[in-house]
Design goal:
The protein has helices at residues 19-22, 35-40, 58-72, 83-86, 96-111, 127-131, 139-155, 168-177, 192-211, 233-255, 261-267, 275-279, 327-340, 363-381, 424-434, and strands spanning 12-16, 76-80, 115-121, 161-166, 216-222, 226-228, 285-289, 294-298, 307-310, 347-351, 386-392, 411-413, 420-422. By secondary structure, it is an alpha/beta fold. The protein has a single domain, classed as Glycosidases (TIM Barrel). The structure holds 5-hydroxymethyl-3,4-dihydroxypiperidine. 5-hydroxymethyl-3,4-dihydroxypiperidine (IFM) is lined by residues 18, 21, 167, 289, 351, 392, 399, 408. 5-hydroxymethyl-3,4-dihydroxypiperidine binds at residues 18, 21, 167, 289, 351, 392, 399, 408.
């Protein structure tokens, strides 16, 4: 059992979840509605009409979930704070029972020796803020920083490291460009303000968190190595455009203090004096979520967007239909080092995992994780400073517009009874964690 052998001392292994995907209890103890409550309750938006109303009922069953993590033996737990649970309308009054919930969770994790790694925004914007323009409005960046301060005021005596945003590209693209996720806008390139305002929110929140004693501030970006579908110049250009849109739009301003050239003109007047300095504030570490590479061809001349994603043939696919390419993780990390050089801070893989068919026999997931850990090791051997690896996800949960149809968990959840059953991958990982030599 050597999947975790050969990693640096103190390399952290953890599991990830997100509030709307697991908590349920959406109307309990003063929580306000989020864009995802609205979206999921809109007929036709989510597969089978599923919602996060109950999800994994983690709001009530968290002691059992913490016990599962302790049994698994992970070093850390990445979870997200539900903004509408702690500040129901996204500004003004706080909701004490909501803050109490995270307070108890943090204490329980620390008692079990599991380091908490909270993400402050994983897509569940308070609906009241959406009604005022949401992330299309610059004011939301300021509200986000205020909210970050309130959470740090409550948890900052025990939590010193934070992730500001999860995958701002996906929230921009799915939520505002193509409309497949909440809040469901289809603005195409008109969604770009959502990128700038989230990044500004990150920068403003980073300042506030540091003022409250944070020692490690991160952002989590979803990154994909982009492969042109052919050597044809049009495909190569389209791939470069996609790379700018998906990866560089979020990495460049944070790491280099500038937007990628290909997109800068679309952002125009949005970027006010001083914004880029705020966004480019020192980052202690970069969170990367990796699932697969993306193969891009040029789109038809009359298409809405200039790039056209193509299937990747000849590799296994997950239950979701996503290609499994572990080497893409190595290529991505080495590529980031080549692109950003000294500007690249230490990296944490804050999500990696796969959906598999329902059941507890998930040899597919074990192969997937083993392959990606090997690829990660080879990136570290090639000189990339990677400090941790978090598996998506601790347990089966609400997979956004796919509802409960995609199962990413190390633990199976029966959504009728809420029974949790560890899968084979859970036992595999537990054995690998136990076999690690103490640092
Ligand atoms: O479930 C999501 C998660 O919320 C964000 N990253 C990708 C996962 C799998 O789709």
């Amino acid at each position: 059992m050597d999947a975790l052998a050969g990693f640096p001392d103190r390399f952290e292994v953890g599991v990830s979840t997100a509030a709307y995907q697991i908590e349920g209890a959406v109307t309990e103890d003063g929580r306000g509605p989020s864009v995802w409550d609205t979206f999921a309750h809109t007929p036709g938006r989510v597969k089978n009409g599923d919602t996060g109303d109950v999800a994994c009922d983690h709001y009530h069953r968290w002691p059992e979930d913490v016990a599962l993590m302790a049994d698994l033996g992970v070093d850390a737990y990445r979870f997200s704070i539900s903004w509408p649970r702690v500040q129901p309308t996204g500004s003004g009054a706080l909701n004490t029972p909501g803050l109490d919930f995270y307070d108890r969770l943090v204490d329980a994790l620390l008692q079990r020796g599991i380091a908490p790694l909270p993400t402050l925004f994983h897509w569940d914007l308070p609906q009241a803020l959406e009604d005022e323009g949401g992330w299309l409005s610059r004011a939301t960046a300021e509200r986000f920083a205020e909210y970050a301060g309130h959470v740090a005021d409550r948890l900052g005596d025990r939590v010193r490291r934070w992730i500001t945003l999860n995958e701002p590209v996906v929230h921009m693209a799915e939520g505002h460009a193509w409309g497949g996720g909440a809040p469901g806008h289809s603005l195409m390139f008109g969604a770009l303000p959502v990128a700038h305002h989230q990044l500004l929110g990150h920068g403003l929140a980073a300042r506030v968190l540091r003022e409250r004693g944070a020692t490690q501030v991160m952002i989590t970006n979803n990154c994909t190595p982009v492969l042109p579908a052919s050597d044809d110049e049009a495909d190569v250009m389209a791939a470069a455009m996609y790379d700018s849109f998906h990866n560089r739009l979020f990495n460049d301003p944070i790491l280099l203090g500038a937007y990628p050239e290909m997109l800068a003109s679309f952002l125009g007047d949005l970027v006010q004096e001083g914004d880029l300095e705020i966004i480019h504030a020192p980052l202690d570490a970069l969170g990367i979520n990796y699932y697969n590479p993306t193969r891009i061809a040029a789109a038809a001349p009359d298409a809405d967007l200039p790039f056209d994603p193509q299937p990747i043939e000849g590799v296994p696919i997950t239950a979701f239909g996503w290609p499994v390419v572990p080497g893409g993780l190595r290529d991505l990390l080495v590529g980031l080092k080549d692109t950003y050089g000294e500007a690249l801070p230490p990296i944490y893989i804050t999500e990696n995992g796969c959906s598999t068919a329902d059941g507890t026999d998930d040899a597919f997931r074990i192969d997937y994780l083993r392959g990606h850990l090997d690829a990660l090791k080879s990136a570290i051997d090639a000189g990339v400073d990677v400090r941790g690896y978090f598996i998506w996800s601790l347990m089966d949960n609400f997979e956004w517009s796919e509802g409960y149809s995609q199962r990413f968990g190390l633990v199976r959840v029966d959504f009728e009874t809420q029974e949790r059953t560890p899968k084979d991958s859970f036992r595999w990982l537990r054995t690998a964690l136990a076999a690690r030599k103490p640092a």
